[in-house]
Structures are given as C-alpha cells and as structure tokens.
Amino acid sequence: SMQAEAAAAAWAGEAAAEEVAAGERASPAAKGVGEEEGWASLLRAAYDVARVLSPPALDALPAAAEEEAAIEAAALVAGPRLRNNRIEDNAGVGVSVADGAAAVVEGNSVRGGGGGGVSFSSGARGVARKNELQRNGGAQIAISGRGTAPLVVGNALREAPAAAGVLCSAGARGCVRSNEIVGAGKAGVRVCEGSSTAVEYNGVRGGGECGISLSSGATSRVAANDVSRNRKAGVLVWGGETRPLLCRNTVHDGEQAGIYLYAAARGVLLRNEVYANAGAGVLITEGAHPFLLENMLRDGGDAGVLVHEEGRGCLVGNNVHSNATYGVAALNGGCPAASRNWLHGRRQGGLLVDDAGGGEYFRNEVEGNAKSGVTLRGACRPTLRANRIHHGADSGVHALLGGGGMLEGNAIYANAQAGVAVESGAAPTLRR
C-alpha cells in the first residue's frame, strides 16, 4: 500500500519520501487528530513497516542449500580463480580485485598483509568464500566503491588487533553472509559512506570496539547476526542519513549498550533479541529517531530502552523485561512515543521519566515490576493514556521532585503500595 511504502521508506532509508511520511513520524498530538485516531494510524504504519521490511527471504537457508548457492554464484563468475593458496606477510593487501574485475577467492589462507587481507574495489565483483584471514594490518576484507558488489560467504576472520573485520565504504553493495568474525581490533563489520551491503547470518564477537558499525549514510539490511562480547556497543548506528534495517539479530553479553543510536540516526529495529549487555538494551540519544517494533529487550545492566539528550523514537509492541533499572527511561529531553509495549519483570521499574524528559505512552502493559510501575520526577511532562499499570511491588505511579505530566484513562490496580503516590513538589494531572 502507499502508506506501507511511505512508512517503510521514512523509517528505513528513502530520503525522497521524507515529506510523504512526515505524518507517520509525528506524534498523534502533533498531528492535530483525535488521540485514538492518531495512535491507530501510527500503529497501522508500524505493522505495515513490519510486513514490507520482513520478507520470507530473511529465513535461514539449510547449510547444504547455502553451500550450493555459494558454489553456483562462484560458477557464474567469469574471471580468475584463486584457490587453496597461502598468501602471507605482504606489504600491501593479500588479494586485490579491482577496476571492474571479477574473481573467485576461495579456500585461501591470507595472513599478515600490511594493507589488509582481501580487497574488492572500483566496481569489482566475485565471490570470497571459505578463506581464513588473520592478523592483517588493514581490514581483513574491504569492499569499496560504487558498483562493487561481491558475495562474501563462509569465511573465518580472526585476530586482527589493529583493523576492522569487514569494511564496506564509498557506496559499496554486495552481501556479507555466514562469516565468523572474531577478535577485530576495530568494528567487526563497518558499513559507511552511503554503502548498502547486506550483512546477514554472521557471528561477530570479541571485538575491541563495536560489533557492527553503521554510519555516514549506510542503508544496509542487517539481519539474523549473532553479535556478542564486544567491548563497545553491539551495534552502533550514527548520522542523520544512516537508516538501516536491523532485523532478527541477537545482541548479547556486550560491555556497553546492546544497540546504540545517536547523532540523528534513524532506521528500523525489528524483532531483535537484545539481552545481558552491561549498558542499556537500546540507547537512543542526540536526536536519533528509530522505529523499534516487536523486539525482546531483557536482562540488561541498565534500562531496556534509554532515551535521552533529545532522543526520540517510536516503540511499538516490544517485550521489555528483567532489566536492572527500568523497562523504558526518558531523561534529559528524551521524548519517545510508545504503544502496546509490555514492561515487566522482577528486577526493574516499568517507566521512568526524569530530568525534563517527556513522550507519549498509550496502551502499554506495565506489570509486575519490582519498583514503581511509572516514576515521574525532575520537571518531566509526559502524557500517559489508556495504559494498564498493575501488580507491581511498589506504587503504580510515583510522582516526586517536580515530576508532572498528564495521566488520563489509565487502569492502575493491584499494586503493593499506593495506586498513585504524589509527593510534595510534584504536580501530575489526573483525568478519568
């Protein structure tokens, strides 16, 4: 539908659709329509985005079928074959495919290249398959330039203390799929400078920086990767023209945030599982405005979703539970729109709005939290409508230290303390 195309384009990367999709990005209140009508429109757009951006093609291939597809792709390359070579300790890159050439690079050991491991550039194509790359000084695999579109599949990239695992730059395309990328000193996979390389089914772990970095206009589909144990964010997304689709990834056991979006980044986070990271599950800051749909965000060392420093975002249908602080926290000007999320679990509070945070929260289920279901403080002014806040171990809503906002039509029941507790200096407005 036109609405689906506009919503998908706006959230996932078509700059030309900015004006068409502006209505979907606005909050219901800003659109000047009735609350029910505005949220219904936004929710329809959310699920249209899911249908448009989650095609069956994302399903995993059986190992034998993937092997067969890679062999077929290699057979179609009308160029040289480099197979089963030891390519070691060269001053430049180990293998360079450039200037429109096509080659199959398969089963090689590529180590110690001063300029990197395998490079595809300037319109090159071909297949890099089942190579072992280790201790290269530049990117283990580099893909750069418009028209450059190789298939990089089934490689083992290990121990590159000074380099990225895979670097995609300068408008590159192609597909990076089913590789093991371990111990990169920089990003395990970096996509930047307007590149749209697909990144699928990779294992990215143990990196010295972030697992996957998307910046400066990247519009990649990043799907079904397992990203773990990286020293910085599992997935880093930054820059106003950067609008990837992150779908069905598992991001876990990192030393900072699971997924970190900043500097006006956008994009869609769809059905990812983010858990056991030391920081927030998803961190949204500095004007970033992503769409989070049906993600599982659990067991983190901070909030499930932390929105601050003028971060925004649309959160729909996420399951957020058992995080160390709150399910969702909006701080320091953070202002998300959230609907139909489930905030629950015996470690966390449900929703915190603090330090001039805001946002609109409609029909969320805030249930069984260890702290107050909703905490309002620090000159905050959110709007909460038609939420269910119940069975918490403390108050349903706790307003203190200047906290305010509008609470209208919420069901607040079966909490261990007060339904609504208002301390001196707080001034929320309650309406039926």
- Based on CA inertia axes, which overall geometry fits? elongated
Query: What structural category arises from helix and sheet content?
Result: mainly beta
For the termini, the CA-CA separation is 37 Å
Unreliable residue stretches: 1-5, 13-33
Estimated share of beta-strand residues:
35-45%
- The pLDDT mean sits at 89
Query: Radius of gyration over alpha carbons?
Result: 23 Å
Which strand order does the major sheet show?
Answer: 1-4-7-10-13-16-19-22-25-28-31-34-37-40-43-46
> What percentage of residues falls in helices of 4 or more residues?
10-25%
Determine the number of helices (DSSP H or I, runs of at least 4 residues).
4
Characterization of the model:
- With 432 residues, the chain is mainly β.
- It has four helices and 46 strands.
- The strands form three sheets. A 16-stranded parallel beta sheet has the order 1-4-7-10-13-16-19-22-25-28-31-34-37-40-43-46, covered by helices on one side.
- The longest helix is centred in the first third of the chain and has 19 residues.
- The N terminus is likely disordered.
